[in-house]
């Protein structure tokens, strides 16, 4: 395992820190400061949106479009599940639910009275300035994907139609952020692996970055590793898929990323050791810098491990891709799928019960 980074090393990898220097070679981004009230909202229990939110208005008949026989990648099924989950985020829906005390059709659900349900309904969030800024950014950029200083809410993509983090409204941005463990990590655990963890910390301002959405080819995303300011390794980012054309492109990938690194990155990023992500599409002559990460866990090493990376001499840049269908690996987001409790939701009554339990924290 490499040496632990310092807090400053981690701060240098925060998007608001590096983007101004690299925006000409990166994805267009709008960066919005977050208030302490909004951070508290993100950390509060429960997933809830404003009472005027457009999310969650789902026809109960749509719930029947998903069955256990549907393919995992079926868009209709994913949309129905996402709509069901989003409807659980409506505080006015929870407050209006209540259970019939004589209903004993499902012993798995704890019955609650109307007054008990009303008591757990959260106060609807109210951040008009941030909402207006998000709307303005979307009007400027088109569809976006959100992230905080370091992380995007990839683990919550199941809650948005299509299973991506593409957002076209402030409601969707709020829902993704509120549903994500990755976002909680940014807020509470970003410096856990730092060598100076116990030094008196300065308060770290938090930002919301809204990045222009592109339908990028997953096959063309690469993770790059730098040690002592030298590019030592490049890995296919999507390790859970085999792309038959990638093994024959190793030399092209190595050349294009190495040239980009030498021209744009090496002398402009302050850390000696770090990881950066690239999008490279040689056929369209597109090459974009996507992100920076600390050269240490919990940063994913894709097709390498830390011991292998530390053992590389750096004389040549090693490029790894999945070279056979037999060598695919589990997705790093494989543990973040639709919750089993949501899969069990089949009727309007189920939604009401699930929502009340979710808001009360009994499903946490």
From TrEMBL:
One of its GO terms (cellular component) is cytoplasm. Residues 67-77 have a biased composition (Acidic residues). InterPro entries: CDC123 (IPR009772). Belongs to the CDC123 family. This is Cell division cycle protein 123. Residues 59-80, 92-124 are annotated as: Disordered.
């Amino acid at each position: 395992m490499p040496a632990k980074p310092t807090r400053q090393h981690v701060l240098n990898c925060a998007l608001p820190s590096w983007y101004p220097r690299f925006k000409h070679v990166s994805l267009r981004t709008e960066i919005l400061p977050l208030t302490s009230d909004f951070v508290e909202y993100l950390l509060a229990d429960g997933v809830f949106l404003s009472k005027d939110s457009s999310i969650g208005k789902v026809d109960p008949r749509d719930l029947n479009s998903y069955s256990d026989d549907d393919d995992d990648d079926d868009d209709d099924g994913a949309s129905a599940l996402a709509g069901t989950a989003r409807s659980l985020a409506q505080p006015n829906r929870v407050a209006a639910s209540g259970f019939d005390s004589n209903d004993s059709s499902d012993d798995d659900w704890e019955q609650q009275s109307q007054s008990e349900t009303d008591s757990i309904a959260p106060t609807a969030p109210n951040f008009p300035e941030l909402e207006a800024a998000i709307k303005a950014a979307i009007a400027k950029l088109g569809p976006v994907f959100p992230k905080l200083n370091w992380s995007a809410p990839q683990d919550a993509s199941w809650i948005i139609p299509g299973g991506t983090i593409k957002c076209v409204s402030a409601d969707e941005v709020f829902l993704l952020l509120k549903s994500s463990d990755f976002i909680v990590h940014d807020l509470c655990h970003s410096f856990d692996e730092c060598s100076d963890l116990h030094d008196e910390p300065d308060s770290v301002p938090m930002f919301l970055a809204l990045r222009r959405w592109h339908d990028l080819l997953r096959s063309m995303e690469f993770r790059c590793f730098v040690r002592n300011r030298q590019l030592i390794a490049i890995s296919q980012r999507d390790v859970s898929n085999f792309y038959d054309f990638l093994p024959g492109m190793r030399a092209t990938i190595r050349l294009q990323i190495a040239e980009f690194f030498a021209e744009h990155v090496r002398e402009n990023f302050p850390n000696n050791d770090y990881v950066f992500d690239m999008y490279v599409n040689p056929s369209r002559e597109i090459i974009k810098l996507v992100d920076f990460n600390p050269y240490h866990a919990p940063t994913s090493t894709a097709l390498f491990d830390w011991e292998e990376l530390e053992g590389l001499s750096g004389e040549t840049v090693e490029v790894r891709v999945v070279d056979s269908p037999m060598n695919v690996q589990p997705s790093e987001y494989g543990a973040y799928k639709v919750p089993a409790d949501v899969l069990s939701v089949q009727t309007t009554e189920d939604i009401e019960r699930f929502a009340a339990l979710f808001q009360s924290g009994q499903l946490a």
